[in-house]
Amino acid sequence: MQPKLRTTVAFIAGRIITGLDTLSIYDHFQSKSVSFEATLSPKYVKVFNDDRGCYTAGPVENNVFDLYDFGHGHSIELEINGNKFKGYDELAPCHFNGEVNGDELSFYDDGEEKTFQFSFKEP
Fold first, then answer.
1. Cα 28 from Cα 14, distance rounded (Å)
2. pTM for this entry
3. CATH number for the domain that contains residue 74
């Protein structure tokens, strides 16, 4: 998965799981905070990644998010269960999964075969 897209998916999953009303996430891989504009409701998610300059949005049904990435023009499936998430990126193509603990998020990218760390607080 492309790094900036991974940050977007981490932000969406983290916001939904934590319920935090924040508009940024710290990406430890990029060593920077990334800002978003976000509309999150029980039925629809729409986020604008300021770093990428594009939207990722889609409907939600039974904790499954059918997201469309307008930057690359492809679909991403995201499923949330408790403090864990998993999904599939059609662009890469690859599966991913992760977990949120407090304000920290770990994200395993199957395409990169690596775990990436995110936080809702800057180090």
1. 15
2. 0.96
3. 2.40.128
Total structural domains within the chain: 1
User: DSSP code of 14?
Assistant: H
Q: How far is CA 93 from CA 29, 60, 68, 96, 121, in A?
A: 20, 21, 14, 10, 30
Domain region containing 101? 3-119
Strands, E assignment, 42-122: 44-49, 54-61, 64-69, 74-81, 84-89, 94-101, 104-109, 114-119
Ordered DSSP codes for 67-88: EEETTTTEEEEEEEETTEEEEE
**36: three-class secondary structure by DSSP:** strand
CA distances from 71 to 22, 64, 104 (A): 22, 21, 26
* DSSP 8-class letter at 95: E
Query: What pLDDT, in 10s, does the model give residues 39-60?
Result: 998 899 999 999 999 999 999 9
